[in-house]
């Protein structure tokens, strides 16, 4: 997930987290050739932890290794995006339906804090920080599932689309709709109306998927 890097204990884990976040943040765009020598120099480490980190990223589905060519940041197709968002909808729907059983006062406080933060960054027209808060909110919603397997699966799936987040909010109209949707999702979870929260969230994710697919199709149409 985006946000503060989690504590790590080995050089390999640190290298893995840095490269992963750089992929998710667009530093290394789709199709970028991740060369061990360049990464080793940039991160001031030997090639061994770089190689191990790249293997893990291959397993995560964030990069692809081609024999005799190297390792490249994965390029996503429309079908990839559709599949990823289908799974996101399933996982978040499950979490929202379970939220009534797991909504403590601490979680309620966090949800309210995210609502205030999203409204603040929307008013400030601060898209990047809004997106970061958006990421944190959806992660919190997943935590409300109380299911560790759902949480770990979601983290892997969400990482695949993080680099496209900004393209789901390319217009002011969509930015305005997004903050309203988030506010309504939070308010319905807090009031115990999981069905309505789920309905709004599904629409929210479907709209995000559509915007990302439009971006990919335009990108593919470029000469």
Automatic annotation (TrEMBL):
Domain called HTH gntR-type: residue spans: 9-76
Keyword list, A-Z: DNA-binding, Transcription, Transcription regulation
Gene Ontology molecular function: DNA binding; DNA-binding transcription factor activity
SMART domains (UniProt xref): FCD, HTH_GNTR
Residue ranges of the TM segments: none
One Pfam entry name: GntR
Protein name: Putative HTH-type transcriptional regulator YdfH
Lineage: Bacteria, Bacillati, Bacillota, Clostridia, Lachnospirales
């Amino acid at each position: 997930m985006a946000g503060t890097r989690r504590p790590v204990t080995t050089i390999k884990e640190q290298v893995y987290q840095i490269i992963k976040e750089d992929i998710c943040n667009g530093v290394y765009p789709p199709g970028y050739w991740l060369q061990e020598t360049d990464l080793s120099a940039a991160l001031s480490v030997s090639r061994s932890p770089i190689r191990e980190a790249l293997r893990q990223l291959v397993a995560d589905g964030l990069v692809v290794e081609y024999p005799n060519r190297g390792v490249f940041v994965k390029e996503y197709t429309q079908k990839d995006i559709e599949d990823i968002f289908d799974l996101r909808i399933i996982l978040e729907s499950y979490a929202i339906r379970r939220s009534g059983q797991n909504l403590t006062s601490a979680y309620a406080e966090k949800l309210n804090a995210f609502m205030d933060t999203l409204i603040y960054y929307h008013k400030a027209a601060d898209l990047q920080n809004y997106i970061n808060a958006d990421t944190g909110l959806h992660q919190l919603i997943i935590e409300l599932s109380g299911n560790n397997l759902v949480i770990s699966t979601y983290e892997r799936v969400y990482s695949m689309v993080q680099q496209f987040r900004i393209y789901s909010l390319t217009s002011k109209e969509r930015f305005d709709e997004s903050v309203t949707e988030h506010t309504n999702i939070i308010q319905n979870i807090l009031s115990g109306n999981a069905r309505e929260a789920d309905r709004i969230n599904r629409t929210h994710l479907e709209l995000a998927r559509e915007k990302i697919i439009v971006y990919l199709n335009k990108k593919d149409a470029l000469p």
